[in-house]
Specification:
mainly alpha
Amino acid sequence: MLRQITGTVAARIVITVMGLLVAVIAGHRLGTEGLGTIGLITLGITLIRLGTDLLGGGGLVYLVPRVPLGRLLPSCYFGALAAAVFGFGIVQLFHLVPEGYAGHVALLAFLQGLNAVHLNVLVGQQRIHANNLVGMAQAIALVAAFALLARLPGADAHAFIMASYIAVALALVTGILSMRRQAPVLADVPHHVLKLLMGQGGYVQAANGMQLMNYRLAYWLVERFRDTASLGIYTVANQLAEGSWLVPKSLALVLYSRISNSRSADGQRLLVLACLKLSMACALAVIAVLLLLPSSFFQWAFGPEVNGITPLIALLAPGILGMAASQVFSHYFSGTARNVHNVIGSGLGLAITVVAGLLLIPAYGLHGAAITATLAYCANALYQAVMFMRITHSSFPDLWPKAADGRRLWEMFMLLRSGGQRQ
């Protein structure tokens, strides 16, 4: 199991780096206008993917060992198609992406939704290595294709669209070839497969939808009250700052595994506190490095039009640290069947994003967007922290680092390692 986790962390590092390389290429070849357009395209795809993943998302993992693929895949494919068609109408009606891109956004969301189905089947079949390889292959292919297409004369955001088609086509082929079509079913086959898919995915996608709006609503507000070029700069700053979540997200995955299999409430509490402090420390280290880099570095990396990154990262920093803590609390609530607190926290953050965004972004531009994100992220994390302390009878002094925290983390990883060896 530890090997699977380290492999997943490595895959996430590769995918994160590839995402930053896309921004580097776009900044140099397409400018901030192109960066902003790509940000809106990606956001539109992600929005539609909330619908395509309703049946084929994380809930599918639970059903793969219990239902033959012949009964699961048709429902997932049809759900992805219906969501893409509906999403196209929404994107077109509300002008959520630049003119001429709505059809591409819907089609890419559909294809990526199919790929997500295959990736979740691989996870359900415990083929984590194959899942990681497909994800990395897609990310690398996207960068390679975009790097070539962006060099063509007159290149614009359509180069990113074409590169995305190439990357997702590769992922679909490799994903299909990697699945085991005749995997054994370990339980009695349920009768109402579609109902089970909806039940597993509906609650999760509702929470994911609010969290997505919490993360990305500011993108649309910046584009609405400023311009696409300003959005390009904010996209780069946000993507850099969110890179500090790589370790917290990976650590939270380990925590979720331990929490879900632990019966000791006090053991869960102590492990959460230890993971919380490590997550915050790792995120703080990344933010500190970003703040120490000179502005000229970001212009060198992402293009001469990308300026003012350092002040934005400074304003985003408290919120990014808050969400690093939230990653840990969210997995505690999920692992103890208290998902309602994740939904409430996301809803609280979204409400603040709407109110603060409408007030601050028109008045203060990108700085207002960064302040809005920080307020929303911190409110979410503060609510989760209060609920965690209330449930576990912890106190604020428990949040300070202690020597015993390192020992608990080491014991957790050793248990995972021994478990992996037994498998």
